[in-house]
Sequence to fold (103 residues):
Amino acid sequence: MDAQIKKGILELCILHYIEQESLYGYDIIQTMHGFFPEVTESTFYAILRRLHKEGAATVEEGQVSRGPVRKYYRITEQGQRKLARMKDEWRHLRNMMEEMGIS
Fold:
């Protein structure tokens, strides 16, 4: 799959996932690996950092573990608007492909 298409799909999936609840970054990655096993952790972390930087997600520090501080991601209102746009775009693309006979 083309890298740009995959990044867009991953971003949509991550936003959808953190819309449900505030989640620890590692847990997000483990779940996403079940669907996208070929994607590296660094790619997921890059998407999470970008979502935070652009204001689509907040980062809250959780309890200190034996390792680094845990970062929990939660969708923002801006992120919810972005997710709604992305879902609309996805539906439009899916409908267009079905009209063309591609499934």
Notes: The mean pLDDT is 91. The beta strands are 23-24, 57-64, 69-75.
